[in-house]
Amino acid sequence: MDALMLARAQFGFTIAFHYIFPPLSIGLGLNLVLMESFYYFTRKPLYLEMARFWTRIFGLIFAIGVASGIVMEFEFGTNWSTYSRFVGDVFGSALAAEGIFAFFLESGFLALLLFGWDRIGAGAHLFATFMVALGAHFSAIWIVVANSWQQTPAGYHLVGRPGGGIRAEVTDFWQAVLNPSTLSRVGHVYMGAWQAGAFAVLSVSAYYLLKKKNLEFAKACLKIALVVAAVASLLQLFSGHESAEVVSATQPAKLAAYEGHYETAPAGLYLFGWVDEKAGQTHGVALPGLLSWLVSGKSDAPVTGLNAFPPDKRPPVNFVFQTYHAMVAIGLALILIAWLGVFLWWRGALFTTRWYLAVLVGSVLLPQAANQLGWFSAEVGRQPYIVYNLMKTSDALSKAVKPGEILASLLLFGFLYLLLFILFIYLLNDKIQHGLRMKAGEGHRA
Amino acid sequence: MNYDWQTLWFILVGTLFSGYAILDGFDLGVGALHLFVRSDKERRVFLNSIGPIWDGNEVWLVTGGGALFAAFPEVYATVFSGFYLAFMLLLVALLFRAVAIESRSKQPMKWWRNFWDASFSVSSIASSLLIGVALGNIAWGIPLGADREYAGSFLGLLKPYPLLLGVTTLALFMMHGSIYIVLKTEGPLQQRLKGWGKNTMIFFILCYAITTLATLLYVPHMLATLQRYPALFIVPVLSVLFIANIPRNVSKGQGVGAFLSSCGALLTLMALFGIGMYPDMVYSNPSPDNSLTIYNSASSLKTLRIMALMAAIGMPLVLSYTASIYWVFRGKVKIDAHSY
User: Fold this and answer.
1) Residues of A in contact with B149 (CB under 8 A)
2) Predicted confidence (pLDDT) at residue B32 exceeds the cutoff of 60
3) Chain B stretch 242-271, residues whose beta carbon is closer than 8 A to a beta carbon of chain A
C-alpha cells in the first residue's frame, strides 16, 4: 500500500475506534442527568442506585474515550501535516475551542461526578452531572464545526502561505463556525449519540429482566431510556432528512453517490441495490420520484447526477451507497423498535414480552453501527477532497513521514485497540454482572 | 496600540504547556515512583492521590496541542509529522497509562493488579522521558529543509543532549511527584516517602546542574535572548531560588511550601526554555535560516485576535474549575467505595 492509503487507513481506524465512545458518553450523560434529577426531586433510593450504577459505566466509557481522543488531537499533524498547514488558521481554532470550552468543563466536573458522591451534597452532585453532560455536548459541537468546515467551507479566503503555496485564512469567524452544514450535522450527531446512550441502557435493562435480576432497577431504567430512545429516533428521521437536503444543496456529488444516481433527471430512492461503477448504473429496488420529492418537494424535479462530475471528482460510489443505505435502514429499524416498546408499554406488556426484550438486548449494536456507517458515508462521500472543492486528500499527506512509519503505527494501534476493546468488553460485562451491589454505608450525604 | 500578537500567543501556548508540566508533572512523577511501594493498600493510595485529577491535568496537553495548531499551524505540522514515531510512542504510553489507572483496581487477582501497576509505572516513566527528549530536540535544533519539513530520521532524535533533557525531565517529575505524594499521605508511609523525597531531590539537582552546564557549553543559541535583554536574568535567578527553596521547605517540614516551590521551579524552567527559544519555535540545526519563528509560522492576525478573545473568556473559567476541583479533593487520600 502507498503512504496515502496507509495514512487514511491509520486515521480512519483510530478515529472509528474512538467514535465508539463519545456518542455513548453524550447519550449516557443525558440519561444520567434524567436519573439523578428523578433522585433529587423524589429522593427514592432506587434512582440513586441507578445514577450510581450508570455513572460507573460512564466512567469506564469516558476514560477510554479520552485516552483514544488524545491520539486524535495530534493525528492531523502526524498524518496530514500538509493539510494542517493549509487549514490551521481556520480548523485549529475549533480544536482549541473544544479544549478550552468543553474538555476542561467535562474533566473537571467528571472528578466530582465519579468521586464526589460523599464529598458534596446531592444538589451539587446533580449540577456536576449536568455540567459533564453539557461538556460532552459542547465538545461534539466544536468537532462537528471543524468537520463541517471540511464539507462546506465558508468564511475564509485563500492567501499566500508564509512557507510557499497557499492557505485558507479566516475572514468571518461566525461564517466559518456556522458554515452551511454545521447546524444540521450537529443535530444529526446529537440524535445518533442519544440513541447510542439510550439503547445501551435499554439493552442492559432488558438483559436483567430476561435474567430476572434487579427487576425494579431494570424496569425504571427501561422506562427512562425508552422515552429518550423513542424521542431521539423520531427526531433523527427529521434531522437525517434535513442533513440530506443540505448535502443536496452543497455537495451534489455526494448526494448522487448516496443514491447511485448517474443521469441528471428525476430520482427515486433506493431501498437497496448495487452500483455498477464501471457501467455507471445502479441496480436495485427504488421508490420512484421520492429523492426528488425529498430534496425539492416535487417528485419530477431533476437531481444532479454523477455524470455531471468528471470521474476523478467522484467519490467511490458503491461504497457510500451501501454505507448510506445501511445507516438509513438501521435508523428506520430503531424507530420501529423504540415505538414498538412504547406501544407495549401502553398495553402493559413491556416487561413481559420476552422476544421484544431479547431484541432490545441486541439493539445496543444498532446505533453504534449507524453512527459508524454515517461517518463513513459523510467522509468517503467527500472524496477525493479532504476540504470539499479546495484540497484533495492526496495533496494533504505529511511529507516527512515514510510509509513504513505509518504502517508501524497502524499495526501498533491495531494491536493495542484490539486488546483495549477486549478489556473494555470484559470490564463492562463485569460491571453489568456484578456492578449492582450497593455496598454498606453508601448513603448520600444529605 | 499595535500588539505583538505572535508574542502573546507564544506566551499563551507556553502557559498551557507549563500548566501541563506543573499539573501532569506530579502525577507522572507519582506514576514513576509507583512500583517502589509494595503493598496493595499503599499502591491504591498512590493511585488515588491523583485519581480525581489526572484526567483534567492531561486536558492541558490536549488544549495546548489545539492552541498550537490554531496559533502556529506550521509548527504543529512540522513537529508532529517530523517526530512521527516518537509521538506515536508517547500517545501509546499516555493511552496505556489511562487504561492502567482505570483498570487496575477493578479486579482482585494479584497478576491483574501487578500487570497494571507495572503498566502504570512504565508508561509514566516513558511519557516523562519522551516529553523531555522532544523538548531537548526542539532546543538543540532539528534539521529542517527550506520546505519546512523535518529532514532527519527517527534515530536522529536520540542525540545526547535531548536524551539528557529526557532524564532531567524524568528526575524533575519524580521530585515533583514525591513532594506531592507526601502531602497526600500520613503516618509511617508518609515518613518513608519523605526519605525518598530527599533522593529524588538529589537526583534532580544533579541532572539540573549537568543540563545547565551542557546548555551553556553546547547550545549557545539558547542564551541569545537572555544576552540581549539582561532584565530577563531575573528568570534564571528565580528558578535557582525556587529550586534551592525546596530542600529548605522540606527540612522545615513545610509540605505545602515545598510543593509550591517545586511548582515555581517548573514554571520558571519552562519560562527559561521559552526565553531560550524565542523568537524561534523550532530551531533548524544545521541551516538556522530554515527555523520556524513565531512570525513565519503563525496564523493570521485575525485568527490570533479571535483566539485571544476565546482565551480571555475561557481561561478564567478553566482556572476556576481547576481550583475548585483541587479544593474539593484537598487533604489526605481516603480510600472509599468510589476509589480506584
Assistant:
1) 81, 399-400
2) yes
3) none
